[in-house]
Design brief:
The protein is of the alpha/beta class. It has a single domain, classed as NAD(P)-binding Rossmann-like Domain (Rossmann fold), CATH 3.40.50.720. 34% of the residues lie in helices and 12% in strands. It has eight helices and seven strands; from the N terminus they run H-E-H-E-H-E-H-E-H-E-H-E-H-H-E. It has a seven-stranded parallel sheet, with helices on both faces. The protein starts with 9 loop residues before the first helix and ends in a 7-residue tail after the last strand.
């Protein structure tokens, strides 16, 4: 079994997948991916690195957010996850896994494009858990469009609000509750450095997230709140078959990376655990790239 403990060749640690052409309506479900993504549910073992912590993860029902929620719970944290109501089947599974780890779980369905919802999920998390000290801004929208002429104002607005405005609204609401020692972790992307021409609006937001992370890290450093980011490469999640990539490219998903394969969400979770834990106490304003070896600045 692939895991993050055994000595293994990373090239073959996880299967090189060649997904068949497939589509799902947005936002997509983990349960319907072919093949299924590895969230670490059968492999991640915690060591108490987040014992007693209280976390809020957006997009925590599937993909990277779900893998992170599982890892956080097994490291000892209570975990709240936000997700779209259409993603309820995936969310139920993650809530059950958090509770199975012996931690409190909080389900927060709603739409990140809604400012009131973004503020509300912070308040609900604080009320339910008695505080908040880890915020993971992970929820995102990605739709492939080849020509700028075909990017509608509606799509551009939805991408900006989901990826940028929500991060701003949630972080602003959370900061007043975060004690010294807290961590904010934002999900950016290799697209921030090497934008694909068919992901113009998405890549623009990911570059902005990097900048937001570095600026906010300096602003909050004196308060003892660390702000960092994780930049995934090609990771097999529901973003891909919900028109996040051209369908004909799925069969070679991630195979152009130096490691020769796409990544699994389980391979991202340890990066978020590291940045949330005290092990990264001197790490601020950093973007941790987890992308299979693709060069970044």
């Amino acid at each position: 079994m692939a895991d993050q403990y055994s000595f293994q060749n990373p090239v073959t640690q996880y299967e090189k997948i060649s997904p068949p052409e497939q589509t799902q309506p947005e936002p997509g479900l983990d349960r319907d991916l072919k093949p299924l993504a590895d969230l670490g549910a059968d492999s991640y073992r915690g060591t108490g690195r987040l014992e007693g912590r209280k976390a809020l993860i957006t997009g925590g029902d599937s993909g990277i957010g779900a893998a992170t929620a599982i890892a956080f719970a097994r490291e000892g944290a209570d975990v709240a996850i936000s997700y779209l109501p259409e993603e309820e089947p995936d969310a139920e599974k993650i809530i059950a896994l958090i509770e199975k780890a012996g931690r409190k779980a909080l389900a927060l369905p709603g739409d990140l494009k809604d400012r009131e919802y973004c503020v509300d999920i912070v308040e609900k998390t604080v009320k339910e858990f008695g505080g908040l000290d880890i915020l993971v801004n992970n929820g995102g929208k990605q739709v492939s469009v080849d020509d700028i002429a075909d990017i509608t104002d509606e799509q551009f607005d939805h991408t900006m609000k989901t990826n940028i405005y929500a991060m701003f609204w949630i972080t602003k609401a959370a900061v007043e509750h975060l004690p010294a020692g807290s961590a904010i972790i934002n999900t950016t992307s290799i697209q921030a450095y090497n934008p694909s021409p068919n992901l113009l609006d998405y890549a623009t937001t990911k570059s902005a997230i990097n900048n937001f992370t570095k600026g906010l890290a300096q602003q909050l450093a004196a308060k003892g709140i660390r702000v960092n980011a994780v930049a995934p490469g090609p990771i097999w999640t529901p973003l891909q078959p919900t028109y996040g990539q051209p369908m004909e490219k799925l069969v070679e998903f991630g195979q152009s990376t130096p490691i020769g394969r796409g990544g699994q969400p389980a391979e991202l979770a340890p990066a978020y655990v590291f940045l949330a834990s005290q092990e990264s106490s001197y790490v601020l304003g950093e973007t941790l790239n987890v992308n299979g070896g693709s060069p970044t600045p």
